[in-house]
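Lab notebook, bench 4. The sequencing result for the construct came back, and we need a structural model before the next group meeting so we can plan mutations. Quick request posted to the team channel:

Model the 3D structure of this chain.
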Amino acid sequence: MRNRGSHGSLAHVASFEEMTSYFGDDDFRRTALELDEPQLTDYDLFTDTRGIKIYRHCKESGLYEYKTYGVLNEIDPLTMIQVYCDYTYRSKWDSYVVELKELTDAALERGSAIYWCVKYPFPLTNRDYVFMRETREISSEKGGHVTHVSLSKDMSLDAYPPKSKYVRVDDFYQAVAVRKHELGTEVFMHYYDNPKGMIPKWIINWVVKTAAPSWLKTLEDACKKYKT
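Done. Here's the predicted structure in token form:
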């Protein structure tokens, strides 16, 4: 059965495809509100593992976008968003990272430009990304709590063209919102990319059902070991 979600003030939720080159205030506000009013119209519950619920929606292209909701125990929200955005540290704890770095020579008005290469299982070719990321603190109108929101979207930089040994992903977005929860940190993630190529469905299903919840547990462990 498909979820119809809640609507209220979010009657129209803009997709990332509708965004301009930079993220707007409403993009951050809508992402933060997902923790109070999950927008799950036409999404199906795909898996519920370790208290992490992942929903998916099939786009017209036949590819899926995913929304994840859950709680990371005994983790402070600020620590979690710092770990998420600490590219040097992530290269140490995330086994799927081949290379991850901020492109400091890319002069953006806001946020950062990032290069990311992801390890794919043999015999598939690794994927790489060039994307922009911006992170803000959003104060809630309900209860006064603070939500940390980080938005990412693919971009093109002439100085960083595709590499012949990787497949460049040029259709990608990710939104993350975290806030304090009585058990630790409440997390929302919205993710989509087009990895290109003929990837077997069993690999995609394995990544979402098994690797994604496992990755969140690894993230939780990395947060507990993090030192600012």
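Residues 201-224 form the longest helix (24 residues).
Will bring this to the meeting.
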